[in-house]
UniProtKB/TrEMBL annotation, chains A, B:
Pfam short name (any one): LacI
Residues covered by the HTH lacI-type domain: 2-56
This protein's UniProt keywords: DNA-binding, Repressor, Transcription, Transcription regulation
Alphabetized InterPro entries for the sequence: HTH_LacI, Lambda_DNA-bd_dom_sf, Peripla_BP/Lac1_sug-bd_dom, Peripla_BP_I
Keyword hit for Transcription: yes
Name of this protein: Ribose operon repressor
Gene from which this protein is expressed: rbsR_1
Gene Ontology terms, MF aspect: DNA-binding transcription factor activity; transcription cis-regulatory region binding
Length: 327, 327
DNA sequence: CTGAAAGCGCTTACAG
DNA sequence: CTGAAAGCGCTTACAG
């Protein structure tokens, strides 16, 4: 690997000058600049990013901390984050935690020791708070409201999501509507629950719910409990699009059909929701926008050099598909 | 942030000594070691990994380069990679390329400029070869055989996969069996195709196939063409589990049922395959093992300091589920 | 506009 | 066993 000094020697200038033409950080005579560019091309010089990071105290890295990348919603968000980061010259470190507090803490520590520029995190972990508090990196949370310890939060309107999904089922003629309620440590889950309850109350319907996690397995457990407790549910609000898959399966086993016997509304609007059979009616979050905005907020903080509290809430939209039928 | 010099001062030793107790790289008197540990605890010292990387020319990072993390198979592999990397103190950089040659090249360049320790890559991109060739990092490919330019390859037995899937359909009574053939730049796709053809020939069956990419959308296109050209297919070998979803959908639209009217065998064995309705019979790759082994090979090369060519092929297994029925 | 020099925060020969 | 010093490869005040 060629070093900056090799380029400098070849171009007959100092390393400082080479650095300046590479970064465009100061005026350099066109004559020398030309020689430098030529020397760079000849040597195939690729600046060592680590050396730069050490001096600048920034490695142009963003950590994406999630319970599991196998959660499709999170992987779609990750996709958007990666894309937005890349186009701004940033890299993303994938941090899968399995909700393991030690792994979460280790990653947070690791990221700060690497001069990362920010953290985007989803983790319903209470223990994490101290760890995050002692971390001076900009932190954007995706699953709860920004607290004293987070610099910013980017979410979609969960209250509205819970509400419109419920109202839609009511419009479809359902009276016995059961919500698969997400973990209540997440303020997003709380809000969705509230939206659901309010919609029920406004229509004189009794709110019913079971607890459930977001992923395949947890969703399956939640779905099982749902059918045990509410075998006569007419409409179901799935905790996630993925969980709806488990609903399909159990309903299929019971020989009940969707939407004729039971209607389902998913949540998230992942790509998969459209490809399921039947295609899933769902509350779509603006996944792309959430990911991009989260990165945008980090970059903003990096530029300003100070951490500002921000709270972004995007609107959600109901995608009408085949698992519900309006009368 | 406390620096190593702060710890040294507090403990009344030199930075060298602090470094030695942290890394256990040389003997230090128990007395001083104790003082150092105490000082570390008091200052909350967290060594700057970037500084270490600069000196060691290793950032303990592995790049995972894939067309798209939205491909569930690749995200499950990524999950395994992340896990194995983490337990060895390595971080993984998520590099999504969308098969964009420029993005791929940029990531490869970025990774070497960051003193990354290796690259694990899936990318059916020819243009990439020069880029990889000029990169001295250990490179493990997942989708083709190791060539002059790759240090190692980790795959599962695609030939066998294509073969056993076909034989299974034959055993199920299918005679008109269509393969959704993956991109032939991948040697894995080629092998699978060969396994299919051989099985057909051995049973006097005419090989039939359409071309298809792996993901949702490409799979849908492939599936459409398949039904256009072979409306009377009895058995279908999906290019991936995800593509099978599109098959379900089209078949559903045609009012044909699985497995009674048509049988389907998926490929990959992602978690999702088990949760689909009907549950998908599929050729499962040892995803966890592949990811772990890929990381293992990188670490091995890092330790040895030299790049050795290796070719790992894991066995595949047929998971019998609901989309096929033996007679 | 340009270069010599210091500095980013560690690690490790080297000498003792 | 231990410390002073050099070095990893850049960037940027500072002086000119």
């Amino acid at each position: 690997m060629a070093h900056i000094s090799d380029v400098a020697r070849l171009a007959g200038v100092s390393s400082a000058t080479v650095s300046r033409v590479i970064n465009g950080t100061a005026k350099v005579s066109e004559e020398k600049a030309r020689r430098v560019r030529k020397a760079i091309a000849e040597t195939g010089f690729n600046p060592n990013e680590i050396a730069r990071s050490l001096y600048k105290k920034s490695s142009r890295m963003i950590g994406y901390i999630v319970p599991s990348i196998l959660n499709i919603f999170l992987s779609e968000i990750g996709r958007a984050i990666e894309d937005e980061a890349f186009r701004n010259g940033y890299k993303v470190i994938l941090c899968n935690t399995d909700q393991n507090p030690e792994k979460e803490a280790a990653y947070i520590k690791m990221l700060s020791s690497m001069n990362a520029d920010g953290i985007i995190i989803t983790a319903n972990n209470e223990h994490l708070d101290e760890e995050l508090e002692s971390c001076r990196l900009p932190i954007v949370v995706l699953d709860k409201s920004a607290g004293a310890r987070y610099s910013a939060s980017v979410q979609s309107d969960s209250y509205e999501g819970g509400k419109i999904a419920t109202e839609h089922l009511i419009r479809c003629g359902c009276r016995k509507i059961v919500l698969m309620r997400g973990p209540q440590q997440y303020s997003s889950s709380q809000q969705r629950f509230l939206g659901y309850v309010d919609a029920c109350n406004e229509h004189g319907i009794q709110p019913l719910f079971v607890e459930s996690g977001f992923d395949y397995r947890e969703g399956r457990d939640g779905a099982r409990e749902l059918f045990r407790r509410f075998p006569d549910a007419e409409g179901i609000l799935a905790v996630s699009d993925m969980a709806a898959l488990s609903l399909y399966r159990l309903l299929h086993e019971q020989g009940r059909s969707v939407p004729d016997d039971v209607m389902i509304v998913g949540y998230d609007g992942v790509e998969l929701s459209e490809l399921m059979t039947p295609a899933l009616t769902t509350v779509a979050q603006p996944i792309e926008a959430i990911g991009r905005r989260a990165v945008g907020l980090i970059l903003e903080q990096v530029e300003k050099g100070k951490i500002e509290q921000r709270e972004i809430i995007f609107p959600v939209t109901l995608k009408l598909r085949e698992t519900t039928k309006q009368i």
